[in-house]
Structure formats: C-alpha cells, structure tokens
Amino acid sequence: MKVQTVLPRDAIRSIDTPEFASEYFGDAGDELIVVEGDPPRAYPIRTLSYHEIVNDTTDDTPVAVTWCPICWSAVAYERTVDGRPLTFGTSGKLADDALVMYDRETGSEWRQPSGECLAGEFEGHTLTAVPTATTTWRRFTGSYPGGVVLQPVRGGAGPGQRSPAREYDMEPYRQYYRDDDFGLYAMRGEGARRTWDRDDLDAKALVLGIEHEDEAVGYPLERVETAGGFVTDTVGGQEVVVVAAEGELHAFVNPGFEFERNRDALIADGTRWNPGTGHSDDSRRLDRVAARTLFAFAWQDDHGPDAFYPTMEGER
Q1: Are 217 and 231 in contact (CB under 8 A)?
Q2: 83, CA 20 to 30 Å: which among 124, 126, 149, 312?
Q3: With contact defined as beta carbons under 8 Å apart, do 24 and 112 qualify?
Q4: Residue 80 is inside which H or E element, if any?
Q5: Alpha-helical runs (H) found in the chain
Q6: N-terminal to C-terminal alpha carbon distance within the chain
C-alpha cells in the first residue's frame, strides 16, 4: 500500500456541526448518501466532494458520513471505537489513491473505503459500517417523506457572495467521472498514471461492496443488471439480495424469500417490494445491508481481483 501526503491536514474541512432542512440547493438528479434514521437524512455528494466527511449523530448513534471523490466511495461509519466517540478529519494523505481520514482524539489514520486503521493508537481496528442508500434528490423526496438534507456551509445570498450552487460546483468531479483515467493523476494531474490490466470490468465500474465476517464481495452494477436486475448470494454466512434500480445498487438481508423481478419491482412472499427502499406493498420492510458503493479499482485495491461477483467459484 502506497501512502503519500498531497495536502496539509484539514485542508479539506470536514463538517462537524451539520444542519438539516427540507430544502436542497442543488439539482433533482444530484446523488445523495442516505442514512435511514428518524428522520431520514440525506448528504449530497455535491457537498461531500468539497468536505469529504460529515461528523453527525443519527438516532443517538455518532456516525461519520464519508466520501472519497477519487474512489467515488460512499460509506458511513459508526464513529465510536472501544467505547470512545471519535471525530474525523481529512489527513491530507492518500493510501493507494484513497482518502485517509484521521481522528482528532488520537491522531490515528483510517483508510476511507475500508475503514481500516493504518497507523496510530487504533492500528488494527476497523470501523463498523452503517447501512446507507445512494440515490438522487428526486427519488429521495419521493421515497422518504419527512426526510431532511444537509445544508451547505459555503455560499450565500448576500451581496458579493457566491451561491451554494457555484461554491459546490460538481463539474470538475463529473469530468473526473467521465475520464478514462483514474486515481490522483486523473483527478489532479499529479503522480503516475495508473493502469488497469483487466478487460472484463472497467476500472470505474460502479460496485456495491459487502463485507461480512471474513468475506468480501463486490457487485458491479453492470453484472447485476445483466443478471436480470438482482442477484441473491451469501456473504460470510449472511443471505443477501443485491438489486440494480435506475442506475443504483442496493443490498438487503434476504429473509429466505425466492425473488423475481417484474419491471420496477421485486416480487417475493406474495407481494411487491420496492427495489430502492426494500419496502413492500403490505407494509413490511427488508433490512438494508451495511455496504458501500465505489469504483471497481478501489474495491480491487482493498480485496484483490477475485473479490467480485460472480466469484472464481462461479455463481453461488
């Protein structure tokens, strides 16, 4: 693993006192990370691309909602370790092109996509991922009545002030998304250009990664779509159903149902299930799996080339 310093510590400022409201300054198609608490909270990728970490508390649980623009990695973690609440900031370092966070209580350094502590007092610990969804603002407002969204901390409406939409301009990150190159070189033109030695999967293919017990499996969006829009699998002894819906990936605990896909719904146990929320027409709900979305190259950096569905053993 290559660790390098590219910015001063906290040059990218985390949000430590987040505020929420029902209004959003961005576009209907903007993507957000959703923590399904009471109320559901949405954290716009547009905002996170400029802050990368939000230290928050949902349903009395301290959480860090995190985003690495280079890895396109969206994951939320519990931020209590060994009974000690931690507050995270950006270290200014990258580990294999991934954001390295640090906690302000001990200075320990943590790799964002995996939650692994690389150095410091907590070295060897791994943060516990929190179930999240990634969806658009349009779908969030339709699926989560009463939900709230993180408010911007930059920009305003006063004389001489730039609007939040201009302060949080997403176009540089969209350009990176569209670029064939990946890593720090593609984002900032620094360092060596990375190579990708496989032709069955693009380096920037969107993947939903599930880690449970001692097993990790990444589910590329294109493979889930090709499989009919969903796959059922077992990861570390946990039965899961992974669903592709309108360009998004979602994973739920499978209670033992036999699923079928019918246009925009899953059919199982005598009812229809919303593939984006796991809610059924008869008011039941599938439990969301603690997972993360990220580019294929970042998942492979952490887990190797064989950690993708279907695994080397074939579809299980």
Answers
A1: no
A2: 149
A3: no
A4: strand 80-81
A5: 45-51, 137-143, 164-167, 171-178, 184-188, 221-226, 296-303
A6: 31
The overall pTM is greater than 0.85: yes
Give the domains, in start order, of the chain with CATH numbers.
3-148 (no CATH), 206-303 (2.102.10)
Each residue's pLDDT, cut to its tens digit, for the chain (316 residues) gives: 899 999 999 999 999 999 999 999 999 999 999 999 999 999 999 999 999 999 999 999 999 999 999 999 999 999 999 999 999 999 999 999 999 999 999 999 999 999 999 999 999 999 999 999 999 999 999 999 999 999 999 988 777 789 999 999 999 999 999 999 999 999 999 888 999 999 999 999 999 999 999 999 999 999 999 999 999 999 999 999 999 999 999 999 999 999 999 988 999 999 999 999 999 999 999 999 999 999 999 999 999 999 999 975 544 4
Length of the chain: 316
Q: Residue 232 is inside which H or E element, if any?
A: strand 230-235
Q: Give the C-alpha separation, 199 to 202, whole Å.
A: 7
Please tell me the distance from the alpha carbon of residue 19 to that of residue 58, in angstroms, as a whole number. 12
Pairing of strands 41-44, 148-150: parallel
Q: Which residues of 92-125 are buried (b: 16+ CB within 10 A; e: fewer)?
A: bbbbbbbbbbbbeeeebbbbbbbbbbbbeebeee
Q: How many other CB atoms are found less than 10 A from the CB of residue 207?
A: 30
Supply 287's token pair: 């439990």
